[in-house]
Prior knowledge:
It comes from Saccharopolyspora elongata. Belongs to the HPS/KGPDC family. HPS subfamily. The chain has a single domain, classed as Aldolase class I (TIM Barrel, Alpha-Beta Barrel), CATH 3.20.20. The two termini are 21 Å apart. The radius of gyration is 16 Å and the shape is globular. By secondary structure, the protein is α/β, with parallel strands linked by helices. It has helices at residues 6-16, 27-33, 36-44, 60-70, 83-96, 111-120, 132-135, 143-152, 167-172, 182-185, 190-201; strands at 22-25, 49-56, 74-78, 99-103, 125-129, 156-159, 177-179. The relative contact order is 0.12. The chain binds ribulose-5-phosphate (5RP). Ribulose-5-phosphate (5RP) binds next to helix 7 and helix 10. Ribulose-5-phosphate is lined by residues 2, 26, 53, 129, 131-132, 135, 159-162, 179-183.
Amino acid sequence: MDVVKLDQALTLARQVADSVDILELGTPLIKSEGLRAITAIKAAHPDKLVFADLKTADAGELEAGLAFEAGADLVTVMGAADDDTVRGAVAAGRKYGKDVVADMITVVDDRVSRILEVSKFGVSFVEIHAGLDEQARPGYTIQALLDDGQKAGVPFSIAGGITVETIGSVRAAGARVAVAGGAIYNAKDPAAAAKALKSRAS
Ligand SMILES: O=C(CO)[C@H](O)[C@H](O)COP(=O)(O)O
């Protein structure tokens, strides 16, 4: 949910809840509304996993702990961050019995090597991710993300402009989670878009 207001996020979450397993709060939403957004989404959807896309770059244990205290079930730490930042987030995950995901956004050179390194630190999975700015460049395709997931051979999710046309290939590549943002929140009918994505992913 890359919206910036909590009321928009609550509306979107309600619209798509029947078709998603995880509700992910995008980084802009958390920056705009703060940790209270995590608490509010979890309170409204206690049956869903709530994923706080913190993209933590430093102070991993502190930031992950704040999000877990607020109600998050999963958080992201930057895969490109210092090793101890990733380890710190994982330590918080162990303390709270929750999951930490290493977001590989911005890691493009020798991405598979870094995926293998951070996987050893105890993250639950890695998110192989092309961000919104990378996706906007001409010629972008999701294929390089899928190829690296298959090469790495560790649990992974994919984020990078997944659509109803590409989500089948994400599943076929073995991804544990498909993260779909714009394909849902930019759709005229987010509920129908989420349902269509889910039907192609199952
Ligand atoms: O984390 C993000 C951007 O940094 C997005 O939430 C993620 O990429 C999913 O959105 P989309 O499907 O529009 O790419």
